[in-house]
Amino acid sequence: MTSPADDPNAALLAQLQAAASVTAVSSNDDVLAFLNAEPDPDPLADVDYTGDEETDARAELDALHRGFRERTAREAERLLLATESEYWFCVCFRTRKDKEAFLGAAGLIAIGDKYLDGYATAKLLGVAMPSTDDTERG
Questions:
Q1: Residue 131 — left, alpha, or beta (φ > 0 → left; ψ -120 to 50 → alpha)?
Q2: Is residue 50 in a domain?
Q3: Whether the predicted pLDDT of 22 surpasses 70
């Protein structure tokens, strides 16, 4: 068995654990379950097949249409959250080398090199964050 220092996946695991800390995923098993989770439900899972091809095809198309509408709604919310500008800020350096030196020295490289989760960053820096309502944005 290798030590954590010898593990070639240690940096990736640290990044996943830091990112998962926001969603209360804390163990390696939780991280693995998070990675293996189905991203979207199967829209055909609830189709009741009758044996009649025309009826079954109509039921499948209805289910697929419903699945696309639901996915569209989830994607619209994700887009809104991803493009709202009041909850993030940017830090710039003159060179990539300087940026990477800063992230390494601050211990932040484990959670990313461009877009860092604010809560994971705060946790690594020892900054206490106020509790927020999950339904709020920004």
A1: beta
A2: yes
A3: no
